[in-house]
Amino acid sequence: MLGHSVRSVSGKVRIFRSFKVNAGSVRPHSTECGVSGKNWLKPSGFDTGLTTFNSLTKQKEPLILARDGVATWYSCGPTVYDHAHLGHACSYVRFDILQRILSRLFGITVIHAMVITDIDDKIIKRSWEENVSPSIIARMYEEDFKQDMLSLKVLPPVIYLRVTENIKRIITFIEGIIKNGHAYATKEGDVFFDIQSIGNRYGKFVGAVEMQGEVGVSNKRDPRDFALWKPSKPQEPYWDSPWGRGRPGWHIECSTIASCVFGDQLDIHSGGIDLAFPHHENEVAQSEAFHQCDQWGHYFLHSGHLHLKGSTEKMSKSLKNYITIKDFLQSYSANEFRMFCLLTKYRSAIDYSDSSMMEARTSLGTITTFIHDAQAYIKGQLQCSPVKETLLWESLAETKSKVLKALADDFDTPRAMGAVMNLVYQGNCQLQPVSTCDSTARSPAVFGAMVSYIREVLDVFGVDLLRGKQTEVQGTSANLQGIVEQLAHFRSEVRSLALSHRKDTATASLRNPLLKACDTLRNDLAPLGILIKDRGAISTWEITEGKPSQRSQSDHDSLKLKSS
């Protein structure tokens, strides 16, 4: 049996007293918020100091958790009948970034559970087309989905739960809703949720004018009533139940499984904006009817659609306007896709195109180029004019403050990235190379601090420049880095020898071809992802992020540009 507490489900709004503990002080919160005729109850618990846009109220609300330093988080996972596409990836990556921000930056442990819908009309249809069992189709594409998420560096939830492994719990949950007077069974073997039984509590995400029921279903009390259980058709998978052989409806799966893990109180529920109605609306109705509570999920976070640029339609399999994650990763890296997601707010629609991906690639390249130049300066390989060290320390402190404020304000990653890019620009302005080496004062510590911070904040977002580069190197050859080191060193020796005889007219015929050969080698290595930079008589090298085979020379030129 699912454990739950019984509370009043009357139309009246109950008053909760909540407390915030701050440096030993305790103070009560306000208790309710009116929203389009509905009531949202500010949760009792611990104020995180963050705000987030809540789809239940359609405005920003203070993020208050039931337990100090712990957030319970449920998300709707995939229906596993085909490959995942970029529209799915955008939502999962965006919420992965939010969870990383909560845990890495604000010290909140996120307990994330996700459902895998492994029985559905689409899965059954695909199994007939492939002439294999629905379970084989589901397991195959479930594993495919998990591999795609791993490729995109999406952290797995604490637990994946399959619908087919929770059928008994789903039946028990439906029985509880019937017992509480909010669902009914028909002689045909259907079980429907009774919308009228909860009155005006239905419609938390949309107005009543937008709500429509199924057309042509005659055995309902109200056209808006939705299925909790439906009888199986011939040759379909089925489970025995008190109402006959059948399988669960779509919405009841999430209510049951989320309640199985988190009980009658959930901090955060996430999903794409298209799931708000009817899926999340029906989840809320079912869960509150079962638990007999006034508010089951406190915060609903919805991500915006991914559109192909120039199209108003979301990326969708049904519209056949999608790009699979595997195909995408042939041209771009996981880090570049994360940067693409970071440059817009998680709840905004986002346009996908080659130009928008190149913007993300260029932004990432600007950062990596600055880091490499700063490291060269720290090593003494890059000679610069005296830098304004005090200004850079002030810029670094200001950036840290701006990033924290932006992310505490509804996870505003575009504003946070804008602050980071401005810091990079300030650093680039100070890294002005000079051709002659002198004994001017140097300021390596401030650049070391800037590099450390930029890496740290990108790592919070899941953009891991260090391990991302090492993974690519190791995947190609364990010895590649050593080979490049030796090659770059040999080229540097040849180039230095040629430059040392610059004023010797007797060796001009030999010197010019050697320098030309050095330049040719540098240019030929660039499309392979190896960038060699000549800094006067000294040369440095780096292996770049991304898919080298897809890069053109112009791509590499853009990566070398500093912020302007």
Secondary structure: elements and pairs:
Blueprint: E1 19-22, E2 25-28, E3 32-35, E4 38-41, E5 46-54, E6 59-65, E7 70-79, H1 86-105, E8 109-117, H2 121-130, H3 134-151, E9 159-162, H4 167-179, E10 183-185, E11 191-193, E12 227-231, E13 246-248, H5 250-262, E14 266-272, H6 276-291, E15 297-303, E16 306-308, H7 325-328, H8 334-342, E17 350-352, H9 354-379, H10 389-408, H11 413-430, H12 444-460, H13 465-476, H14 480-500, H15 508-525, E18 530-535, E19 538-543, H16 553-559
Parallel strand pairs: 7-8, 7-14, 8-9, 14-15, 16-17
Antiparallel strand pairs: 1-2, 3-4, 5-6, 10-11, 11-12, 12-13, 18-19
Order the strands across the largest sheet as they lie in space.
9-8-7-14-15
Largest sheet properties: 5 strands, parallel
CATH architectural arrangement of the largest domain? 3-Layer(aba) Sandwich
Radius of gyration: 29 Å
Count of helical stretches: 16
Are there runs of 5+ residues with pLDDT below 50, and where?
1-31, 33-37, 469-478, 546-564
Q: Would you give the CATH topology of the largest domain?
A: Rossmann fold
Beta-strand residue fraction: 15-25%
Mean pLDDT over the full residue set: 85
CATH superfamily of the largest domain: HUPs
Give the tally of β-strands: 19
Q: In total, how many domains does the architecture comprise?
A: 2
Distance from first to last alpha carbon: 62 Å
CATH class of the largest domain: Alpha Beta
